[in-house]
Amino acid sequence: MIEFAHSFLLIFAQLAFGGLFGLSIPGFHEIERGFFKSTGCVYLGCGWVFFLGKTYLVVSSQAEAVVGLRGWEIGLWLVFCCGFSVYVVSLWSEAVVLRARAYLFALVAGLIALVVSASAYCSAPVVSIETLLYPLSLLLSALMLGAVATGMSLGHWYLIELDLSLDPFKRTFNFYAGTLVAHLGVLLVAVGLLWLVGQPASVTRLASLWTDHQALLWMRLGLGPLAALPVAYMIWRTLQIPQTMAATGLFYVAILAAIVGEFLGRFVLFRTALPL
After folding, report:
1. 124-136 pLDDT tens trace
2. Are 157 and 172 within 8 A, CB to CB?
3. How many Å apart are CA 61 and CA 53, to the nearest integer?
4. How far apart are CA 55 and CA 166, in angstroms?
5. Domain-wise residue ranges, the chain
6. Distance separating alpha carbons of residues 15 and 77, to the nearest angstrom
7. Which residues contact 3 (CB under 8 A, 6 or more apart)?
8. How far is residue 76's CA from residue 48's CA, in Å, rounded to a whole number?
9. What kind of architecture, by CATH, is found in domain 2-272?
């Protein structure tokens, strides 16, 4: 069951990286800095939870794994968390250059770390479609998680700054809607590509997913991205009024669909090693 714990923890890593990326969407100079402090601390906490949990699982399972791919994974996420920490701390100062460099450093480190985490589940040769699909799938789901979480957090900020321009909220929603559609598209395309040009092991896993875990597959799609599409449409319509409080409430529903969908996706990863 330790592999299930590894898969489960990925949600925290994805939320940390996707949330950090999502902070760049509203615009730093358009919103009071308190928004970035509070929201950034939440995402940073997710990053440290993943790092500490991952380290415990690897060290307690088999010490020799620390020097392998899992060791590189832990090291990269530590670098990400340290860079992210510097960025968050810099929000309480006027060190503009340090803040910008720390943000970019953490973003690049998080991207590399997420690719390594995804590659740990891929047993296909380097020259294969799996090498691209595993990181791409987890990356898009991370961006989608970060976008919906940032949208919900930003919606609450409009209850504090009543005269705040609606443009940052609309940009954040557009980013969320775009990542949601891209994420769903990659999930569907991934199934087709793995079936047509994937390695024999991937085809076998797809067949197993369809025969043994068909209900799990439909739940992953139906309770996740497919359920989020009509909610995203309602958020868009609400922002046309505009009514930020109602849009924030709908973001609660959207983040519920995102979290449930991704938990089911990581369960698919645990049971079949497929990046869905």
Report:
1. 666 677 777 888 8
2. no
3. 12
4. 42
5. 2-272
6. 13
7. 270
8. 12
9. Up-down Bundle (1.20)
